[in-house]
Structure to design on (1129 residues):
């Protein structure tokens, strides 16, 4: 039994498990941090961005001024942003039988795998994961396609040239495998291969293996997976949460008695308490509005935004923000808000009880009804005429490289009255802001990551007692910036088996029995 | 041999008060707990004294499963759990859990407040009962206890309706509840995988009907409503608040839109808006088309359909009114019916099945004079139309479900005996499986043939595989030797050495010995050598050794020679083999009894 590790990103995993002659891909995460190396895609012509100087090496031997631009001492690629795909050379991806998806953030590389590798298998996901995953992909495609770039830069990827490039570009890995975004056609074709599953549903694969998704408490429809035969059990833990937010609570007890537990998707902000961050978010927002400034919240269109809106619903009146307009701008804003209301089965108990009344489970329905929250597909159209300031704008993409957020950064960046509040933990906010420097606007960093922290996970592991734990190597040592914090790593006996991109691990199993099925019949001669 | 027992307490050769007891693998399950619309006395609820004469049901039932929110499937639930007494789990889907208490409360109000009955369940009892409900998700495998698991499948019929699979070990039963095999304007079609249950318990409301296409029926319905409106009549459509009502509303709404009609459409009771809210929030349970477009346009927001007020019934001019309940047995639909029955311009359209004893059933059977309470009689002059819009599977649909699930036995409930009999014949003929149709209180027993899983030690498996040559043939059965250990409810097959070790036993050897007399005028060693050469030529592929201590070994079988005391030419061959080598040993003894061939040196 082997595990092939195709992604080195601990929260956007992509692993392949060979188990009892089936080949199972666990998640299909797309590492989007690569886009930070690119210039933002403005929705309207930006004189500032177009005036940036091109880059040539100091000795003048390398001239890439058409492809690379300098901004505030950093160099960016002037091309459509590209993504770092899961490794495709480690094994033949056409042999994959099934792909198990754990949550909608971990499926963004799906079209690259299902459409271009000869994949003929089935993808398993829950209904909310499929529907919201579709929205996020649709949004990504829309962000890219509505501002087409005439040129696409390729020279800088040349291995000899990359070596002389400055800064993060020089260290970027596998840049020649980076790919542009997929098309809507590819998304539809990829998602047509998805078969829906419910929590605790037992899915038989070729009679040899049984897989079953469990509630993981992280997002709508998010799941961990049990992969088992009669005598071996592998648990795959992806983004999970023990906090009480909107999704159904995490099912912990079903993870018990695993031979191997593959642990991914822990919090990226182990030192930031989500509740504290939420408080800081609200107070910074109120302060800026009272001072007459605007608030920009770069975010994904689903997930934590539902909790932010719920928190604001309670906060608005007490903070006297009743007249401040809140805008949610995304090509899928409306769909995301509507979809969130129809997944009663996948929500926490409190929200389910509301549906029984029958009332919408999320209070953003009331915010919309009372006109406090308005949503628009983009800054063009109705929004431009209805838009009032000061206001609060929720919009994507959190990398600040594409989407409507680019426009607001350009619009509000010059005034110190305005504030940008980062809530998504996926991107370093300093890197995200780099191409907008110099910036007068205030920047507040309140990353809200509800996934398991090291304290919670060690308690969980003590309870479910797997024989072996496999995890990304990042979890076996403290973060680089806090090397003295030995509490920010996994300490287990036996020690966890670490993996990195391109690792192939032999999983330890001690199997002693197999199962026979014996029919009872009257003429049975078992006992002679 | 294990048996599965099925006993209907209600819905056995009847429609109404569905309640079916199933005993499988030592577990007892109650499927549905409904009331009968045709009775107002004790017969309206199932007879729970069948389960136990005195005391609570908790000790006798492992779980109760409710298939959908119609009162003939859940109407007796608070009575059963709170008045008879049951504290175990009650399973139903989320929409059923949401809607069922509202209908129960409605039922209670009509019975207690309007008819003045006492000794009926209270609002608090409904609440307490609902606290015992565990929600079910589609396709989720719910472990009721270590052995009993249940799984829900989509059934169409009404919002949240489910079919359930009940499984203990490898034995299983599927109960369909009410289902619909064709998608309609707001719900999808029932679906199940090829789960091969031991028994498929199916409803059979339309056992003998094969309905024409839905489109024709819809056109017919619209034509009748339209004609009646055109000549200034009033149209009453008795419905239940949830289900057909929404489908017919969608139908009329689009028709009014297209034809630009002005006559008002009303929907009675405050339930309407609430009902439509449930459809909006549980949109994942509706059909694909509605689910796909709900963000742009929610099909359950009606423009032409308004709330009804009691005073509107006397308004002049044409109108269409949807009123509850659907069988004209009580409530608003009955009140309006009484008002409008005398005018032949008016029309009542019965869109679904009516249970015997209800006014709906009577007028559908052509009765034109009705006896009302207080000896008054009512002359029925208005037009009575019947349109089968109730979402039950017809004969074709039932056969289709059998093909999908491939059951080993079939059991029919929720239908009329004569019609069941006909369908039973068809099923037995087409699928060559047994079909049962027990009446209420009658038990159907089905013998099952479950497989028993045995854990086999890998070492033993490998050893035994090696004996049969390198490539095992999966098509041929193989004999294996091992020791079966039954311990703590599990079966293990291990090698005998391991079994001895695990159980702390000493090994006892069992040996057979046998004397074979031969006439062979040679010396003992020569005879032995002759035996050796003979066996060598006969037994190819066996290890045969001539040992220096004066024995011949064939595999582990020992052969020695001794001379007879009386006759020098007579020799005695001594054979000894262990019990495990019985086959070879007895073969050798019979071979040697035939003597040695001459000409051997």
């Amino acid at each position: 039994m082997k595990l092939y590790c195709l992604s080195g990103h601990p929260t956007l995993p992509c692993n392949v498990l060979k188990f009892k002659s089936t080949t199972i891909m666990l998640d299909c995460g797309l590492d989007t941090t690569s886009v930070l190396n690119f210039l933002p895609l403005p929705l309207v012509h930006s004189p500032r961005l177009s005036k940036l100087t091109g880059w040539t090496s100091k000795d003048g031997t390398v001239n890439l001024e058409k492809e690379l631009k300098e901004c505030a001492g950093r160099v960016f690629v002037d091309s459509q942003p590209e993504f770092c795909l899961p490794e495709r050379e480690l094994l033949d991806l056409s042999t994959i039988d099934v792909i198990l998806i754990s949550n909608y953030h971990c499926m963004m590389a799906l079209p690259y795998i299902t459409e271009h590798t000869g994949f003929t298998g089935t993808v398993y996901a829950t209904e909310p994961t499929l529907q919201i995953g579709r929205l996020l992909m649709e949004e990504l495609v829309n962000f890219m396609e509505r501002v087409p770039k005439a040129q696409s830069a390729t020279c800088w990827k040349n291995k000899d040239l990359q070596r002389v490039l400055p800064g993060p570009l020089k260290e970027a890995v596998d840049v020649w495998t980076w790919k542009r975004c997929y098309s809507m056609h590819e998304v539809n074709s990829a998602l047509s291969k998805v078969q829906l599953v419910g929590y605790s549903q037992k899915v038989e694969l070729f009679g040899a293996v049984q897989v079953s998704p469990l509630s993981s408490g992280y997002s709508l429809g998010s799941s961990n997976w049990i992969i088992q035969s009669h005598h071996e059990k592998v648990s795959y833990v992806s983004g999970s949460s023990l906090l009480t937010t909107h999704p159904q609570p995490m099912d912990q007890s079903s993870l018990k008695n695993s031979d191997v537990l593959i642990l991914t998707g822990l919090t990226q902000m182990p030192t930031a308490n989500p509740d504290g961050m939420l408080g800081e978010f609200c107070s910074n927002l109120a302060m800026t509005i009272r001072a007459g400034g605007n608030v920009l919240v770069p975010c994904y269109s689903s997930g934590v935004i539902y909790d932010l809106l719920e928190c604001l619903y309670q906060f608005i009146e007490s903070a006297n923000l009743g007249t401040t307009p809140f805008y949610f701008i995304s090509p899928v804003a409306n769909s995301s808000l509507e979809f969130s209301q129809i997944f009663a089965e996948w929500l926490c108990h409190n929200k389910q009880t509301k549906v029984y009344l029958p009332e919408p489970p999320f209070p953003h329905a009331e915010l919309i009804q009372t006109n406090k929250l308005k949503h628009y597909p983009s800054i063009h159209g109705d929004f431009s005429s209805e838009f009032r300031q000061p206001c609060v704008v929720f919009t994507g993409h959190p990398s600040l490289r594409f989407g409507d957020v680019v426009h607001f950064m350009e619009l509000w960046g010059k005034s110190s009255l305005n504030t940008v509040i980062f809530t998504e933990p996926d991107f370093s906010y300093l890197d995200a802001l780099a191409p907008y420097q110099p910036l007068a606007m205030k920047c507040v960093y309140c990353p809200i990551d509800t996934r398991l922290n090291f304290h919670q996970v060690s308690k969980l592991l003590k309870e479910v007692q797997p024989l072996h734990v496999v995890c990304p190597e990042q979890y076996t040592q403290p973060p680089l910036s806090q090397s003295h914090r030995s509490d920010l790593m996994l300490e287990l006996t036996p020690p966890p088996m670490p993996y990195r991109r391109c690792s192939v691990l032999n999983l330890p199993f001690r199997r002693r029995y197999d199962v026979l099925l014996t029919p009872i019949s009257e003429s049975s001669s078992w006992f002679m | 041999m294990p048996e599965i027992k099925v006993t209907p307490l209600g819905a056995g050769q009847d429609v109404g008060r569905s309640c079916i007891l199933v005993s499988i693998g030592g577990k007892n399950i109650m499927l549905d707990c409904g009331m009968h619309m045709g009775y107002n006395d004790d017969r309206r609820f199932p007879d729970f004294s069948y389960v136990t004469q005195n005391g609570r049901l908790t000790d006798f039932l492992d779980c109760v499963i409710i298939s959908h929110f119609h009162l003939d499937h859940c109407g007796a639930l608070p009575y059963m759990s709170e008045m008879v007494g049951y504290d175990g789990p009650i399973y139903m889907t989320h929409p059923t859990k949401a809607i069922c208490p509202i209908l129960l409360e409605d039922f209670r109000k009509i019975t207690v407040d309007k008819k003045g009955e006492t000794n009926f369940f209270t609002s608090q009892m409904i609440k307490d009962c609902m606290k015992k409900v565990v929600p079910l998700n589609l396709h989720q495998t719910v472990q009721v206890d270590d052995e009993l698991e249940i799984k829900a499948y989509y059934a169409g019929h009404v919002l949240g309706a489910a079919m359930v699979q009940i499984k203990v070990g490898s034995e299983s039963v599927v109960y369909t509840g009410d289902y619909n095999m064709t998608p309609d304007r707001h719900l999808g079609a029932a679906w199940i995988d090829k789960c091969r249950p031991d028994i498929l318990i199916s409803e059979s409301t339309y056992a003998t009907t094969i309905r024409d296409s839905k489109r024709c029926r819809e056109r017919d319905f619209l034509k009748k409503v339209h004609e009646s409106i055109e000549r200034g009549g009033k149209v009453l459509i008795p419905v239940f608040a949830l289900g057909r009502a929404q489908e017919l509303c969608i139908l009329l709404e689009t028709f009014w839109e297209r034809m630009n009609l002005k006559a008002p459409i009303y929907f009675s009771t405050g339930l309407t808006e609430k009902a439509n809210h449930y459809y909006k929030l549980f949109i994942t349970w509706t059909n694909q088309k509605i689910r796909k477009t709900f963000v742009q346009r929610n099909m359950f927001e009606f423009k032409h359909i308004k709330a009804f007020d009691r005073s509107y019934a006397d308004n002049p001019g044409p109108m269409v009114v949807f009123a509850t309940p659907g069988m004209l047995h009580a409530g608003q639909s009955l009140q309006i019916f009484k008002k409008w029955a005398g005018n032949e311009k008016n029309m009542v359209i019965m869109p679904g099945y009516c249970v015997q004893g209800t006014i709906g059933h009577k007028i559908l059977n052509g009765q034109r004079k009705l006896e009302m309470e207080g000896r008054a009689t009512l002359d029925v002059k208005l037009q009575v139309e019947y349109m089968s819009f109730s979402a039950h599977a017809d004969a074709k649909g039932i056969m289709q479900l059998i093909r999908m699930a491939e059951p080993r036995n079939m059991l029919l409930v929720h239908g009329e005996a004569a019609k069941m009999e006909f369908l039973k014949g068809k099923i037995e003929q087409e699928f060559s499986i047994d079909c049962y149709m027990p009446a209420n209180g009658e038990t159907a027993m089905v013998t099952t043939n479950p497989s028993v899983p045995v854990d086999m030690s890998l070492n033993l498996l490998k050893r035994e595989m090696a004996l049969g040559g390198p490539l095992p043939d999966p098509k041929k059965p193989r004999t294996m030797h091992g020791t079966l250990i039954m311990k703590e409810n599990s079966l293990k097959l291990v090698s005998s050495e391991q079994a001895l070790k695990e159980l702390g036993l000493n090994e006892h050897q069992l040996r057979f010995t046998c004397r074979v007399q031969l006439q062979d005028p040679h010396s003992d060693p020569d005879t032995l050598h002759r035996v050796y050469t003979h066996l060598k030529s006969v037994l190819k592929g066996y290890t045969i050794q001539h040992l220096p201590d004066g024995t011949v070994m064939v595999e582990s079988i020992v052969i020695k020679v001794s001379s007879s005391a009386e006759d020098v030419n007579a020799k005695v061959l001594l054979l000894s083999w262990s019990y495990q080598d019985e086959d070879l040993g007895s073969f050798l003894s019979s071979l040697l009894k035939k003597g040695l061939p001459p000409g051997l040196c």
